Amino acid sequence: MPSNSNAWVLLRLLQNGRISIMTKRFDATISGRVQGVGFRFYARQTAAELGINGYVRNTRDGDVQVVAEGEEPDLEIFLQLLQQGPHSAHVERVDVRWDEPTGEFARFLVRG
Fold first, then answer.
1. Given 18, 40, 44, 53, which residue is catalytic?
2. Structure pTM?
3. Residue 108: which of 62, 66, 60 has the closest Cα?
4. For the chain, which domains are there?
5. What is the rounded distance in angstroms from the CA atom of residue 62 to the CA atom of residue 104?
6. 8-55: per-residue pLDDT in tens?
7. Annotation marks residue 25 as catalytic
8. Which entry of 58, 93, 97, 107 is annotated as an active-site residue?
């Protein structure tokens, strides 16, 4: 058993088929005119088409947060599409933090 608990969790997720070697995770904050323009529903639809799990939510300061897990090439495409946003949005900035996947999501959800 690995001494690092994170490594152990990742090993178990790999063994159970919940994630693969190419599975990655990001936490992105999208800034601009992104609330009240259908951005969360755009993100959910796009994630579903790409087979990405996670969630999208509005933040109190007017941004949108996206936490996503999936295959790295799919996540790269997802990020590019989030930078564009739906036609009614105006994305000014996307801040992304990459992390190890947790396998905690079974689908992509819109949160409050």
1. 40
2. 0.81
3. 66
4. 22-111 (3.30.70.100)
5. 26
6. 555 565 556 555 557 899 999 999 999 999 999 999 999 999 999 999
7. no
8. 58
